[in-house]
Amino acid sequence: MVVTVSVRETRRSTRALALLGIVVALAVVVLLSIALGSNRLSLTEVLHALFAYDGSYSDTVVRDTRLPRTVLGIVVGMALGLAGALMQSVTRNPIADPGILGINHGAAVAIVFASAVFGVTAPGHLVWFAFVGSIVATALVYAIGGGRGANSPMRLALAGVALQAAFVGINQAMQVIDTHALDKMRFWLVGSLADRDLSTLTGLIPFFVAGVVIALLLGRSLNAIALGDDTAHGLGANPAVVRVISILAVGLLCGAATAACGPIAFVGLMVPHLVRLVAGQDERWVLGLSVLAAPVVLLGCDVLGRLLASPAELQVGIVTDVVGGLVFVFLIRRLRTVRP
User: Are 101 and 156 in contact (CB under 8 A)?
Assistant: First the structure.
């Protein structure tokens, strides 16, 4: 009994320290995101622009360019981190990620189609197409990767890679047919936080909020279905309903994130694994810490892209592909006992 209490107290202390560390890391990376760029600003200039704005050049750079980009990175990071944690939990697949399984690219296809064919450009309108595209992509992944191997991480990953390649090809075909769409979508399709303003989020906030709230409320139910469907029923959870609601939440989060800044992969893969190292398997903590840790990773990659290519910059989607690709290879090597 004493040992059990000691273990619980140790785990609580670890989680509390992890929460504090993530909050501090988020504050640091937010300041770096605002300060670093083609024109580097000091901490004093950043704080002056945030709390004592007087219209100077540095204040204008912070308020009009850097701050909207940082806020967008926080919101999109939260969405991608939660979507990845939800997918890994509900599918029991350690390499599930909206980018790897082609869900973000499914949303991107719907957005490019809406823009090229119907002339839709407002993010608040595009998000509806993105939501439908992400849901359709999720259904296709499970249809192609289903059957007797439906629970195989490798099989689902291969289905996602195949779909992602198909979606990329469709996007490229639409862009070649419509050169105007090509010029307009070039940077957006690689995943970018650049050249965005807060008006981008205006029509997307309800989708982000709904997705985040639904995801966080599913924590207890996800803990139940992790014990098996029969046990989950005994604990009062309906596994089928939980999975459907989870898919809808993933669609909301991925659709809004993709509409805001394009398809960004691997954030939803990396963050839940890092969080589980300190939080354990309690999905309430995994989801809660992922929503804070994912913006740290996304903004960190965005800052890294600015530093590596200064005075130009690498788009954040390129940096997350490189960093996340290395993490993906590491995870695949750990799955040696899993048959495709």
Answer: yes
Q: Which CATH number fits the domain that encloses residue 171?
A: 1.10.3470.10
Residue range of the domain that includes 86: 2-36+75-334
Residue 50 lies inside a defined structural domain of this protein: no
Full-model pTM: 0.89
Domain count, the chain: 1
Rounded distance between C-alpha atoms, residue 35 and residue 38, angstroms: 10
Retrieve residue 257's tokens: 């994130």
Contact present, 141 and 156 (Cβ < 8 Å): yes
Distances (CA, A) of 79 to 188, 210, 246, 295: 17, 11, 13, 9
pLDDT averaged per 10 residues, the chain (length 340): 62 89 96 89 89 85 90 95 92 82 89 84 84 89 65 73 88 75 69 82 90 94 87 84 90 92 91 89 93 96 91 90 87 60
* Residue 69 and residue 33 in contact, taking contact as beta carbons nearer than 8 Å: yes
d(CA 262, CA 166): 17
170-177: list long-range contacts, CB under 8 Å, 24+ apart: 170/109, 171/105, 171/108, 171/109, 171/112, 174/112, 174/113, 174/116, 175/112, 175/116, 177/116
Return left, alpha or beta for 55; rule: phi > 0 is left, psi -120 to 50 is alpha, else beta.
left
The answer to whether position 53 is within a domain reads no
Closest to 316 (Cα-Cα) out of 332, 331, 334, 294: 294
